[in-house]
Amino acid sequence: MTAIRISCCVFTLALGLTLYSAPAAAQPATISCATALDSLFTTTPADYLTVGGTRLSSRGSLGFSSFTMSSGYSLSATPLNTPGAATSSTFYANRFTSYFEGLFNEVFPGRGNNDVDRWDFWIYRSGVLWLRSITWGGAWATLQGQTCYRGPQNQTVLTGYSDTPGFGTDFWIFVFRGDRLI
Fold first, then answer.
1. Contact 140, 123 (CB under 8 A)
2. Element (H, E) at 85
3. What is the largest CA-CA distance in the chain?
4. pLDDT for 142-164, tens place per residue?
5. Spatial distance between the Cα atoms of 174 and 156, rounded to a whole number of angstroms
């Protein structure tokens, strides 16, 4: 009788574990960057993009991380843990005929000297993103391996990287949504 009781308990436990399985983390579905951007000109026209971003670099012995803030943001004038910094945590890219263009400041938490780098951001209707460092007088460059994902509230997540010979690889992530003036 004890053997039957143990077998029933083991069977019940095994059946319960088989029937209950924790939901697997779903891989976000990729979308065409061109489709995502084109829709901001046609299906749901946007007057501008609201954008947030971050960069992780593999330069030097380990690398560094940074994040984007609105153009004109000053770390020394508006420390990060203040309401003013929260309102500056995104930047805007205005719509033109076939692209959106905006400026942003890049903040480096590990620098400690309150410096920020200025950047120019252009993303075309075709889905191609171009970046240029204003601070360092860099040339325009596209991100390699661009991949786009649709976020849960209709935002677009764009990832990509750029290789800088002799310096390493920079990995960028931008999250943006189309917004209207009215």
1. no
2. helix 83-87
3. 83
4. 999 999 999 888 899 999 999 88
5. 8
Tens digits of per-residue pLDDT, 17-49? 333 444 556 677 899 999 999 999 998 899 999
**How far, CA to CA in Å, does 70 sit from each of 7, 91, 154?**
65, 4, 22
Q: Please give the structure tokens belonging to residue 165.
A: 């010979």
Task: Name the pairing type of β-strands 99-107 and 116-124.
Answer: antiparallel
Cβ-contact 119, 133 below 8 angstroms: yes
Complete DSSP assignment for 110-135: TT-S--EEEEEEEEETTS-EEEEETT
CA-to-CA separations, 101 to 94, 121, 153, in angstroms, rounded:
5, 6, 22
Dihedral (C-alpha) 74, 77, 78, 80: value to the nearest 10 degrees?
70
Chain segment 70-111, per-residue pLDDT in tens? 998 988 888 888 898 899 999 999 999 999 999 999 998 877
CA 4 to chain CA mean position, Å: 57
Tell me the two tokens of residue 72: 């004109």
**Looking at domain 28-179, which CATH architecture does it have?**
Beta Barrel (2.40)
Q: Coil, strand, or helix at residue 6?
A: helix
